[in-house]
Every structure is written in C-alpha cells, then in structure tokens.
Amino acid sequence: MTETILLTGGAGYIGSHTYVALKAAGYEVVILDNFSNAAEDVPDRLELITGGPVQVYKGSVLDRPLLARLFAETQIDAVVHFAARKAVGESVVKPLEYFETNCSGLVGLLQEMDAAGVHRLVFSSSATVYGVPDETPTPETAPHRHINPYGLSKITGELVLDALAKSDPKWAFGILRYFNPAGAHSSTLIGEDPSDIPNNLIPYIAQVAMGQRPVLQVFGNDYPTPDGTGLRDYIHVEDLAEGHVLSLQALLSTGQSHLVNLGTGAGHSVLDMIAAYSKACGRDLPYEIVDRRPGDVPVYCAQVDKAREVLGFEARRDVEAMCASSWAWVQARARGNAY
Ligand code: UFG
User: Fold this and answer.
1) What is the predicted pLDDT for the residue at 50?
2) How far is the CA of 163 from the centre of ligand 1 (A)?
3) pTM greater than 0.90
4) What is the structure's pLDDT at 12?
C-alpha cells in the first residue's frame, strides 16, 4: 500500500526538493504551506517535474482547525516537518515569533497527529544546535548550545521530541541536523528563491553573478581557518532531500527514532565558494573583505559516520555541482514563467 506523507513547509526550498524525492521513491505526498517564504507557483513547478497533480493545503502550521481538517480528510502515515522560521538575525529581533512558529507550531502539530493516530515525524533541525562547537567535524554527541533564539527554538524542538519519545513508545522521530544546504534541482524548475535580501552566502553570490548586486561582502578573513574566511559543510539540496527519504523509510520500517547530521564531512571556505561559483558562471565574481558578521561561527563541519551507519546516507554531489545547479536555476528563474 502506498504511504502518504504530509510535508509541512513543502513549498519551501528544502521542502520542495524533498517533495520530488519522495514522489520518486513512490510515496503519496500532501503539502501544507502558507507561502510566507515560498513562491505561489512552486506547486505548478512541482507538477511539471513529477508529472502529476500536487495536493496543497494553503495555511499555517499554527492553524489548528486546518490541521484537524487535513488529518480528517487524508489518511497520513507520517509527517516531514519543515514549516518554520529560519533567519538567525530576525530571530534576535523577534524571538517570540520564532518560539511561536518553531516551538508552539511543532507542539500543536504533534497534538493533531496524536489525535489522528499518526506517530512518525521527521524533524528539520540544524547544525545551529551545536552553537560554537568544540570539535570539528562535529559528532551528534556534541552538547546543545544556543547562540541565538533560532538555535534555541531548534534545540527546544529536539528536546520536545525526545521527551515525547520517552513518554510513549508509540512515537518515533527522525531528527536531521542539516549543515549548509546549497544548489538547486537539476530540472532548473525549483531552487532557493529568497523574497528579500539574501542572508545566506550562496543566494547572495547568485545575485552578484546575475548582476543584481555589485559585490559580495566577505564577513571576515581573520578566522582560524586556512584562508581566514568561514568554513562550512555545504550539502547539495538534492542530497539533503534524499536524506529525508532515507530517514522516513527507516522510521516507517523500524519504528525506531534516530538523530543524525546531514552534511558531507568536508569544509569549504567563503573564498572557495566564490571561486567555485565564478567557475560555474564563467567570470570572476567581485568581492570585498569586511568585518566579521556578529554571531558567526568560524567552522561548521559534520561528522557523517552516523548518518551512513543508521540511514545508509552518503552525500554524492560536490560544491561544483551545487554552484552549477544554483547558477542554472537563477538564470531560469530570471527568464520568468516561460517554462
Ligand atoms: N558569508 C559571507 N558573506 C555573505 C553571507 C555569508 O561572507 O554575504 C559567510 C558567513 O560569514 C559564513 C559563510 O558565508 O562564514 C556561510 O554563511 P551563511 O549565512 O550562508 O550560513 P551560516 O553557516 O551562517 O548559517 C546557516 C543557516 C543557519 C544555520 C547554520 C548552521 O543560515 O540557519 O547554517 O547550520 F544555523
């Protein structure tokens, strides 16, 4: 029997790629999204990629009557929960909005799941739960540390799930700590599409490559890294999406919870990424070194053994593929809806 998966935030960057991966793996998928950080045409694009209708409930994960209706109308087997706020800087200014969406939203969803008899959930966590880690590559056993309200909201989510799993064996959770997602789908029909000034490196470089912004600011070159710029573990969004499929398969087949990092295990500096993107777009992209960004961590890099052992997960795509697919996507996006 085909299992049906609810994707909250399924029209967003990682959610939309996961939709495609889940359909390719044979699941039925229902999306819940309020389109606060996703383009309205994402479902049409997903239809083009997957060749079938896309079922979407438009609304917030905080809308309990909507959740109750969704679970009453569709027999859901498991949930992949992306719907959350994710801008670190904004979380410092508006912490309550982060706790409301990311913490209360999760708790309400779990209550509606319980009422509907659904007890399997994959949770979008983040390397941010390590704060400034003592150890890199960082293992899952590293302690929780928060350096901003966003990080605190993700730690809280993990702790809620841990307590719930301990309260009753009927629950099982896959907690996935993402490192730095990058790149876009090979179809060029979906990718990262920030509606505002991008906070993150790759979408910002993409806008410089497109000529929409004159120069990339490199936030500091005096970190304790080989070239002095911040080091990150960039993971292709299609690899990340496949990690969700493996997590779900493990949850549904074993009923056992797991918590894993999803990264590649390799670190790349800001200058490495500028070089890789310059190669992808065919010109040297302009950048200037400026002060460190407050709150930035020098190095994030995943220890990846546990994901390999528990899920059989291995990232396959490199930074060249991430930059090339991002570049293909932003050009296609700029051509508009002529797809
Ligand atoms: N950077 C620049 N210039 C920019 C943007 C970023 O130099 O315009 C640098 C940063 O200083 C950092 C690196 O590029 O060294 C990556 O920065 P991002 O903003 O792309 O990503 P972060 O690692 O800071 O944060 C991301 C997510 C967080 C998450 C964290 C850890 O945005 O939500 O990864 O997983 F918590």
Assistant:
1) 98
2) 30
3) yes
4) 97
